[in-house]
# Entry
Amino acid sequence: MAKEGLAGVRQSPEDSIVWREEARKFETPDGEAFLQYRLVDLSRTSSGRGGVSPAAMDMVHTFVPGSKRGLGLAARLCDAAFSHARSHGMRVIPTCSYISDTYLPRNPAWNELVYKDGQPKNSSSM
# Structure
């Protein structure tokens, strides 16, 4: 059976983000806004540093329909996905342009999770 769970910080149903593991996405309860990811095996490129998961979440696409833009949904999807990655000891590859160009510059605390060129990217370089 597929795992579904609530992710993120907010508690009210309209603010909840649902993690759909089988679909590899985080989405709003109605499924209209979502963040799609894929898992990447980093074990071949890992430097063998202790405590770092050999997996990364490649966040490939964030979508919010026009009728729901401007409500902060994309940022809440990202919050949930980055929180999930952190709690599971994973790195993040920000392939999605919204994440790399907009979300991360506004949320530099997450830079510690970013994986680039074989090494985690530190917050001072982004």
